Automatic annotation (TrEMBL), chain A:
Name of the coding gene: nqrD
Subunit composition and interactions: Composed of six subunits; NqrA, NqrB, NqrC, NqrD, NqrE and NqrF.
Official protein name in the record: Na(+)-translocating NADH-quinone reductase subunit D
HAMAP family for the chain: NqrD
Enzyme class: translocase
UniProtKB/TrEMBL annotation, chain B:
Keywords from the UniProt entry: Cell inner membrane, Cell membrane, Flavoprotein, FMN, Ion transport, Membrane, NAD, Phosphoprotein, Sodium, Sodium transport, Translocase, Transmembrane, Transmembrane helix, Transport, Ubiquinone
Reactions it catalyzes: a ubiquinone + n Na(+)(in) + NADH + H(+) = a ubiquinol + n Na(+)(out) + NAD(+)
Coiled-coil segments: none
Residues recorded as bearing FMN phosphoryl threonine in the entry: 222
Family the entry assigns: Belongs to the NqrC family.
GO cellular component: plasma membrane
Transmembrane portions of the chain: 12-32
Subunit structure: Composed of six subunits; NqrA, NqrB, NqrC, NqrD, NqrE and NqrF.
NCBIfam families (UniProt xref): nqrC (TIGR01938), PRK05346.2-4 (NF003753)
Name of the protein this chain belongs to: Na(+)-translocating NADH-quinone reductase subunit C
InterPro entries, sorted: FMN-bd (IPR007329), NqrC (IPR010204)
Cofactor: FMN
Gene this chain is encoded by: nqrC
Annotated source species: Polaribacter marinus
């Protein structure tokens, strides 16, 4: 990549695979379970977290030398909460339809541990540009897992992708359903998301054995 | 690095300044956006009411309101009367659509008379009676508008929610769920109010049986579905006296 130095590029590519916030650091699991019953919600959540994390990282990074270390967690919480509320209000005023789709996610974004985790672990010690890249990278890594989980849960649970009936109509018995295929309702429930994430972790660690922790 | 940021005085001053800055910022943004948000919410209510009586831009599968630009115009074109029912008293009020159902429900809890809004619309020679309803889902409030004919047979329904789970409870605002209510009877075969139950395993997923007072539930959304059943039962029941006067 000519645009970014090798070190900067790693900030984006590392969280996608070998330092993925969900599968390696096991952060942000709560929202990964809650909203991945359909693909569209996963994509919306991934993009929202990306916006908040990138901007939040830059803000915290700019403030890093003046934040008193005793109350830094509170300061981080205030920054992310204020940011999310302002974005929500502005959307409500100027993009009302979009804000209705996103409002469900607002609470989930504020409490997402990836956001606090990156503020604490990266933005407090690095400059704004690198923090911005780190925010994009980590949100992308998080979003990637969300989208994979959402893809399988919607496909196997509802037989649709982004709302399109890709496997035929379960009530009219067309497509795959004509051959006796049934949707797996269990896929729609949160425990199945945990199992799907578990399978992803399994595949990832069996491909790259250096990721396996030693006892 | 200097240790000045570790001192107590610095920490307290920082906290105070931070609160002031963030507080002012939030208050400013809130008051700047409030008028626009209120207008958006008013238009949304009109769109919801119109949607329930079948005035919408639906395509084959998705639910679409009439556009925000024409909502006000369409609302005054199709809605002939806005009524406020207060006990036995029925008055016309063209601001009835702004009645806050939540406030009225808590008024009823305190033993005061609840004001009920009812919108009478006309489209293609048919008369629609649209009533707002409100209740609790799994996480937060759910609400909606149900349009009926004078025999309390549902002509259309719109549901919405504040924070139900995407992909599960949030699907109450999808066409496949809302459309199931069309044609359902709110009264049983003896003419008593039965409501409509969102039922699991009613063996009628295509919803061909319209007089069973049941629609098919959404998998994985039991509590939201129960909330829909409950708000239909408790809120629409209150309109029975008015519908009885229509028969006289």
């Amino acid at each position: 990549m000519g645009l970014l130095s090798k070190k900067d590029a790693a900030l984006i590519t590392d969280p996608l695979a070998d330092n993925n916030p969900i599968t390696i650091q096991v952060l942000g699991i709560c929202s990964a379970l809650a909203i991945t019953a359909e693909l569209k919600a996963s994509i919306v959540m991934a993009l929202s977290v990306m916006a908040v994390l990138a901007i939040g990282n830059v803000v915290i990074s700019l403030m890093r030398n003046i934040i008193p270390s005793k109350i830094r967690i509170i300061v981080q919480l205030i920054v992310v909460a204020a940011l999310v509320i302002i974005v929500d209000l502005v959307l409500k005023a100027f993009a009302y339809e979009l804000s209705k789709t996103l409002s469900v996610f607002v609470g989930l974004i504020i409490t997402n541990c990836i956001i606090m985790g990156r503020f604490e672990a990266f933005a407090l010690a690095n400059g704004p540009w690198r923090s911005f890249l780190d925010g994009i990278g980590n949100a992308a890594g998080y979003g990637l897992i969300l989208i994979i989980v959402g893809f399988f849960r919607e496909l196997l649970g509802s037989g649709t992708l982004l709302g399109f009936k890709v496997l035929g109509d379960p009530i009219e018995k067309t497509g795959l359903y004509a051959m006796g295929y049934e949707n797996n309702g269990f896929m729609l429930l949160s425990p199945m998301a945990l199992i799907v994430v578990g399978i992803i972790i399994w595949i990832q660690r069996s491909k790259n054995t250096s990721l396996i922790e030693e006892n | 690095m200097s240790k000045r940021t570790d001192s107590n005085v610095y920490t307290i001053v920082f906290a105070v300044v931070m609160v002031l800055v963030v507080g002012t910022l939030l208050a400013t943004v809130f008051s700047l956006t409030k008028p626009t948000i209120t207008t958006n919410q008013k238009i949304e209510k009109q769109q919801n009411i119109l949607y329930a009586m079948g005035v919408n831009d639906n395509d084959e599968t998705s639910a679409n309101f009439v556009s925000t630009k024409v909502a006000q115009e369409e609302f005054s074109k199709y809605i002939k009367k806005q009524l406020v029912i207060e006990g036995d008293k029925v008055t016309e009020n063209d601001k009835a659509y702004l009645i806050d159902v939540k406030k009225e429900q808590s008024k009823a809890k305190e033993g005061k008379t609840r004001r009920l809004a009812l919108f009478i619309g006309e489209k293609d020679g048919k008369t629609f009676y649209v009533a707002p309803i409100r209740g609790k889902g799994l996480w937060d409030a759910i609400w909606g508008y149900v349009s009926m004919d004078k025999n309390m047979i549902v002509q259309g329904a719109y549901f919405d929610h504040k924070g139900e789970t995407p992909g599960l409870g949030a699907n109450i605002k999808q066409r496949f769920f809302m459309d199931d209510f069309i044609g359902e009877h709110l009264l049983d075969d003896k003419g008593n109010f039965a409501g409509i139950t969102v039922a699991k395993g009613n063996n009628d997923p295509k919803n061909e049986d319209k007089i069973d007072n049941e629609v098919d539930a959404i998998a994985g959304a039991t509590i939201t579905g129960n909330g829909v059943s409950a708000m239909i039962k408790s809120d629409l029941k209150l309109y029975i006296p008015y519908f009885k006067t229509l028969k006289k």
